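--- STAGE predict ---
source: upstream dedup step, 1 unique chain passed
mode: sequence only
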Amino acid sequence: MANLVMPKFGLTMTEGLLSEWHVGPGEAFCAGQLLYTVETEKVANEVEAEIDGTLSEILVSEGETVPVGTPVARISDQAGEAEVPGASLATPAEERDVQDAPAARKLMAEHGLSRGAVDASGRDGRVMKEDVLRVIATPLAKRIAAIEGVALEEIVGSGARGRIKAADVETAAARAARPAAQSTVIAPSGATEIAASPARLSTARRVLASKRDIPHFYMTHEAELSALTELRQGLNTDSERARISVTHMLIRAVGVALAELPVLNRIWSNDRIVAFDRVDVGMVVETPEGLRIPVVRDVGGRGLDEIAEAAAAAADRARSGALAAEDVGDSAIAISNVGMFGVSSMTPIINPPNAMIIGVGADRKLFRPGADGAPTLRHELTLTLAADHRIIDGADAARFLAHLVGVIEQPIRLLRTPKRP
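--- STAGE serialize ---
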C-alpha cells in the first residue's frame, strides 16, 4: 500500500486544489489513465497513472486545497503492495501525532498509560493511540490551527472518518472570534444563500492566506505619461504590427526596472529566498470565472512587439479557460490595471508566491506647480506597489518604484536593452 501525494507543478507551488477525481475508491486503473485533476493558479493539471493499480481510499475530497506532498489517496498495484511513481510511503497526514495536546495527556493519565506502554500495547493500544493520542486532520488544517490558536482536539471534522479539514478550523476560529450574540446569523427575508464554487473557495483561501501570512507594505508614486503616450501613438501608426497598450508598456517597464535592479527579482518560499535569472511579469486578467494571472515571460529580454503579442495571447487563454501550466507561476511581480474603470488608484493584494504587485489607476490630466511655481499641465498615472516585507525592505521598494517611474518617464528605454548592474 502506498500514498498518492499532491504533486508539485512548478518551482514555487506550495499547495493545490484537488478539483475532480476520475477514479473512485476500489476501482482499478491502468497506466496512462487519468486519476484526478489539480488546479494551481487556476490552471487545470491532469494527473495520470504510471502503472496499473487500484485506488484503495480517497483521503482528499474534491474542492479541498492541500499543501504539496500531502497524501491525497491510498493506492496499490495489482499485487496490493508496490509503491507507484509519484507516491509516498510516508505516514499519512491524518495519522500524525499530536500527543502533546492537553486532552491527550489527560486521557493517558486517566488510563495510567505512558507513551511507551501505548506503543507496545498491541491492538487495544493501537485503538487507544488512534482515538486518543492522534487527531485526524489535514496538514493545512493543522497549520491554520497553529496560526489561529485553535485546539484541534476540540473540533469535530466534516471529512471522511471525522477528518478535520481547513474549513473546519476556519469555522471554529471565526466562531471563537465573534461575540456570542452574533453566533447565529439569520438570513433576512428575500435573501438567498449561494454555495461558493471550488474556484471561489480557492480564491478566498489564497487572498486570506496572503493577507494573513504576508506582511504587506505599500508605496505610491505618480508617473508623468506625456512622453510614453507620444511614443505609444507613434508605434501604433504601424497597422501591420501588434497594437501596443499602456499595460503592455508597463509590463515592459517593469521588466526593464527589474532587470536593472535584479536584487528585487526574487520571492520568499519555505523560509528560503528564490532568485530568478529571468524577469517574468504576471498580468491580472478578469475572466468569467474570476481573476486569473497569466505570466508574460522574459519581459526584460523581449521587445515591445513580442510582449504585446504574448500578453494578448495569454489574456485570451485566460478568458477562455485555456491556460496551461507554463502560463502561470514562477514570477516575482504582477500588475493589476484598473484604470479602464476610471479608478484613480488601487491598493492590491499580493498573489502568492509573488513578492510584489503593482496597482495601476486611470491616467488623468491636472495642473501642478512647475519649476518656476507657475501651474503646469501634467498627464499622470498613479502606481501603488505592495511588497512582501519578509524579503523586501522599504528602501529597496522605494528605489525600485522610483526606478520604474524613471523608465516610464523616459520611455525610449523601453526600446533598448536594459542596463545590467
